[in-house]
Design goal:
single chain; alpha+beta; 111 residues; 7-stranded antiparallel sheet; 40% strand; 7 strands
Length: 111
Protein backbone atom coordinates (compact mmCIF):
# COMPACT_ATOMS: atom_id res chain seq x y z
CA UNK A 1 0.00 0.00 0.00
CA UNK A 2 1.07 3.58 -0.63
CA UNK A 3 1.05 6.01 2.29
CA UNK A 4 -2.02 7.75 0.82
CA UNK A 5 -3.94 4.46 0.53
CA UNK A 6 -3.18 3.59 4.14
CA UNK A 7 -4.20 7.04 5.39
CA UNK A 8 -7.48 7.02 3.49
CA UNK A 9 -9.98 9.85 3.79
CA UNK A 10 -8.57 13.06 5.23
CA UNK A 11 -9.57 16.66 5.75
CA UNK A 12 -10.30 19.45 8.19
CA UNK A 13 -12.70 19.25 11.12
CA UNK A 14 -13.10 21.41 14.19
CA UNK A 15 -12.54 19.70 17.54
CA UNK A 16 -13.92 20.99 20.82
CA UNK A 17 -10.99 21.39 23.18
CA UNK A 18 -12.31 23.18 26.27
CA UNK A 19 -14.39 26.15 27.42
CA UNK A 20 -11.46 28.58 27.14
CA UNK A 21 -10.25 27.61 23.65
CA UNK A 22 -13.56 26.31 22.23
CA UNK A 23 -13.52 24.85 18.71
CA UNK A 24 -10.03 24.33 17.26
CA UNK A 25 -9.22 23.52 13.62
CA UNK A 26 -7.60 20.09 13.25
CA UNK A 27 -6.57 17.93 10.28
CA UNK A 28 -8.11 14.44 10.48
CA UNK A 29 -7.06 11.25 8.72
CA UNK A 30 -9.25 8.16 8.59
CA UNK A 31 -6.72 5.32 8.90
CA UNK A 32 -8.30 2.31 7.17
CA UNK A 33 -5.60 -0.13 8.26
CA UNK A 34 -5.57 0.67 12.00
CA UNK A 35 -9.25 1.61 12.27
CA UNK A 36 -8.71 4.97 13.87
CA UNK A 37 -9.37 8.63 13.18
CA UNK A 38 -6.03 10.34 13.75
CA UNK A 39 -5.81 14.08 14.18
CA UNK A 40 -3.10 16.69 13.80
CA UNK A 41 -2.90 20.41 14.56
CA UNK A 42 -2.66 21.11 10.82
CA UNK A 43 -2.14 19.43 7.46
CA UNK A 44 1.51 20.49 7.65
CA UNK A 45 1.87 18.63 10.97
CA UNK A 46 0.29 15.56 9.33
CA UNK A 47 2.90 15.72 6.56
CA UNK A 48 5.59 15.91 9.28
CA UNK A 49 3.86 12.92 10.98
CA UNK A 50 3.34 14.84 14.24
CA UNK A 51 0.12 13.21 15.44
CA UNK A 52 -1.88 14.98 18.15
CA UNK A 53 -4.16 12.03 18.95
CA UNK A 54 -6.23 9.14 17.67
CA UNK A 55 -9.85 8.06 18.10
CA UNK A 56 -10.24 4.27 17.92
CA UNK A 57 -13.25 3.49 15.73
CA UNK A 58 -13.74 -0.19 16.52
CA UNK A 59 -16.74 -0.22 18.85
CA UNK A 60 -17.06 3.58 18.80
CA UNK A 61 -20.48 5.20 19.02
CA UNK A 62 -21.43 8.07 16.71
CA UNK A 63 -23.87 10.67 18.06
CA UNK A 64 -25.26 13.42 15.84
CA UNK A 65 -26.09 16.70 17.60
CA UNK A 66 -29.85 17.35 17.18
CA UNK A 67 -29.41 21.10 17.62
CA UNK A 68 -26.51 21.51 15.16
CA UNK A 69 -26.42 19.39 12.00
CA UNK A 70 -22.68 20.06 11.57
CA UNK A 71 -21.69 18.78 15.03
CA UNK A 72 -21.30 15.21 16.23
CA UNK A 73 -19.56 13.21 18.91
CA UNK A 74 -17.51 10.06 18.73
CA UNK A 75 -17.44 8.05 21.95
CA UNK A 76 -14.52 5.65 22.15
CA UNK A 77 -12.78 4.05 25.14
CA UNK A 78 -15.02 6.04 27.52
CA UNK A 79 -13.86 9.35 25.99
CA UNK A 80 -16.04 11.80 24.07
CA UNK A 81 -14.64 13.64 21.08
CA UNK A 82 -16.85 16.54 19.95
CA UNK A 83 -16.30 17.41 16.31
CA UNK A 84 -17.77 19.81 13.78
CA UNK A 85 -17.68 19.67 10.00
CA UNK A 86 -18.44 22.18 7.24
CA UNK A 87 -20.41 19.66 5.19
CA UNK A 88 -22.64 17.11 6.90
CA UNK A 89 -23.12 15.35 3.55
CA UNK A 90 -19.38 14.63 3.24
CA UNK A 91 -19.22 13.47 6.85
CA UNK A 92 -22.15 11.11 6.53
CA UNK A 93 -20.92 9.66 3.22
CA UNK A 94 -17.46 9.08 4.67
CA UNK A 95 -18.75 7.35 7.80
CA UNK A 96 -21.28 5.24 5.90
CA UNK A 97 -18.56 4.09 3.51
CA UNK A 98 -16.15 3.29 6.32
CA UNK A 99 -18.78 1.62 8.49
CA UNK A 100 -20.06 -0.60 5.69
CA UNK A 101 -16.54 -1.48 4.66
CA UNK A 102 -15.18 -2.25 8.13
CA UNK A 103 -18.29 -2.66 10.31
CA UNK A 104 -16.72 -0.85 13.24
CA UNK A 105 -19.33 1.60 14.53
CA UNK A 106 -22.22 0.55 16.75
CA UNK A 107 -25.69 1.62 15.76
CA UNK A 108 -28.68 2.29 17.98
CA UNK A 109 -30.00 -1.13 16.99
CA UNK A 110 -26.79 -2.81 18.27
CA UNK A 111 -27.34 -1.26 21.71
Amino acid sequence: YSKMEIQGIQGPLSKWTNVVKGWQYRWFVLDKINGCLSYYISREQMIKETKRGCVKLRGAVLEIDDSDETAFALISDNKQFHLQVNSLFILVCSFIWYTLRHKVLKTERDG
